[in-house]
Amino acid sequence: MALRPAAGVRAKTTEYREAGAYSVRVPAGWQAERSGSVMRWKDVHTGRGLRLTPAPGDPLAGLRAAEREAVAEHRYPGYHRLRLQRVPEVIAGAAEWEFTWKGEPTRTFENGVRHVLCSRAAGYEFCFYAPDQGWTPGQRLYDKILVSFRPDHA
Questions:
Q1: Are 80 and 100 in contact (CB under 8 A)?
Q2: What mean pLDDT value characterizes the chain?
Q3: What is the helix (H) or strand (E) element at residue 148, kind and residue range?
């Protein structure tokens, strides 16, 4: 199923290509960082960020396991699950895990609440985060990023 770009999202993007793996458009100006097979981008001005990593296997089972591990390790203080479900309307076989958690307040996270949405499909996991008070425009930006993702089929 093809996705349409989200209405009202006009952020300038730049293409990132991982040779033999995928290409994706990310917001221009975001800082990029690689750690092994994990790629991260972040906007230091808004507190938004994206992590993209290989995630083979069943998307829903993988996200359920990630949630169990995060809860057991107390990784997200004040964790609150919003949803964890299959989302075939996004991409066939895809699943999403959406939650909030409360960290220390900062300049970009004024009330300390972080909103996170992790999507798994096509052998990859995307985790997007933003300050809770800026979640709606952040989610529109994330939708635009997801639409641009193209796995390479060697």
A1: yes
A2: 87
A3: helix 135-148
